[in-house]
Amino acid sequence: FGQRIVILDSTVSTQQDAMRLAEEGAPEGTVVLAEEQTAGRGRLGRKWFSPRGKGVWMSIVLRPTQPLGFTPQLTLLTGVAVCRAIRRLTGVEAGIKWPNDLLIHGRKVSGILLESATEDQRVRYCIAGIGIDVNLNTDDYPEELTQLGTSLKIEAEREIDRTELIAAVLEEMEQLCRLYAEQGFQPIAMLWEALSVTINRSVRAHTGQGIAVEGTAVGLDPSGALVVETDQGERIQVISGDIQL
Length: 245
Ligand code: BTN
Prior knowledge:
This protein is an alpha+beta fold and 245 residues long. Helix content is 27%, strand content 34%.
């Protein structure tokens, strides 16, 4: 990972740039970074606030060999990698909210967007998009985000070196992808559950189809879906969407 890194001053979205490189045959581990994004993308069609020089706005080309249904596992793997890198570098105990929002003191510090290009039920490539609010100050946030977002600088009470953080994320990604290739998803799921702030909490889940489920999050199933147990003892798998804790 990081053998080839493209650094841009300003771009629309590093997801688009990485996709273009992947289409041109860029190998796994190719990275695109930008100082600012003019239309950063979030999950579920949301926007991602990406101000100049204050964060890590990064996309990584992945070339998984597993069939299509396995991509949620890569989303969770990426969340573990970023969470470990943040903890190692800053000492701040970030936790993962399913599927892969990273929270500190209940506020979001990082988000991950995994997009896949497929053909005949096969994955051609995935782009792991990682946004980390690194050196934003409280007054950098637009009003609608002040209650929701936080940065590593606010939480660690010091400037964080973005280059060191990027290096740590790439190291963690490489290690976890190796573990995943050698031992499958189970060890990744264990790491995810240990870093998660979702397990054993009561949650309300909204699936992509707009169906609401209420219950206790009990763990991940082998595919990477979140298992929610309702008060009636029924176990429901949540594959996509969002949860409220
Ligand atoms: C989310 O929490 O909704 C996911 C946010 C992902 C943001 C990153 S920033 C780098 C990459 N480029 C984008 O346009 N989005 C991802």
